[in-house]
Design a protein that fits this description.
Elements lengths: L6 H9 L4 H13 L5 E4 L2 H9 L4 E4 L17 H18 L4 E4 L7 H10 L4 E2 L7 H27 L6 E2 L3 E2 L1
Parallel strand pairs: 1-2, 2-3, 3-4
Antiparallel strand pairs: 5-6
Helix pairs in contact: 3-4, 4-5
């Protein structure tokens, strides 16, 4: 997962003993202690290494999720996400045919996109992240704000019609 922060951060983390190799050691130790863990893989090579240390579950990570107010502005196509995810899955399954496979990120921003990836890869599940938490909240917040916008219009109309200003303890003078 450390790879999400980019090459420069990865190098700095390696220099202080907290890099990718250390992360793999942690996954290996967890496996030896019979703990369940899941690891993200960004490339087939990473997937192979993760499977080699005994991780029982892996998720492709094809970039930050697009969409919403704060989502990634650029992303790979859905077909590229399918191709990359399947390459990651194939590499992991070459090592461990029983490894559990999940998909995550990039253009997988909603149920339709997730279903497309599930239908076109060996993924057994999906890790939601922003698609499951941030974007639905953003949509509901925007809807709520749109639904209350008319209240401001009523206040403006009252002022225009000469209503006296009154003290509103929650909002100051209206």
């Amino acid at each position: 997962m450390i790879n999400i922060y980019g090459q420069e951060v990865m190098e700095q983390m390696e220099n202080i003993g907290m890099g990718w190799d250390r992360e793999l050691d942690l996954v290996k130790t967890a496996h030896e202690m019979e703990m369940f863990c899941l690891e993200y893989a960004f490339t087939p090579e990473e997937a192979r290494k993760i499977a080699e240390v005994g991780c029982p579950a892996i998720s492709s990570h094809v970039g930050s999720t697009v969409g919403g107010a704060r989502g990634a502005k650029t992303a790979i196509t859905l077909d590229d996400a399918v191709r990359i995810s399947q390459e990651i899955f194939d590499a992991a399954r070459d090592v461990n045919p029983d490894i559990i496979l999940f998909a995550h990120g990039g253009p997988m921003k909603g149920p339709k996109e997730v279903q497309y990836v599930l239908d076109n890869t060996n993924a057994q599940g999906f890790i939601g992240g922003s698609a499951a938490e941030r974007m639905p909240i953003e949509k509901q917040s925007e809807l709520q704000l749109r639904n209350t916008k008319h209240l401001n219009q009523k206040l403006k109309k009252r002022r225009k019609n000469g209503r006296k200003k009154t003290k509103n303890h929650c909002r100051g003078y209206v």
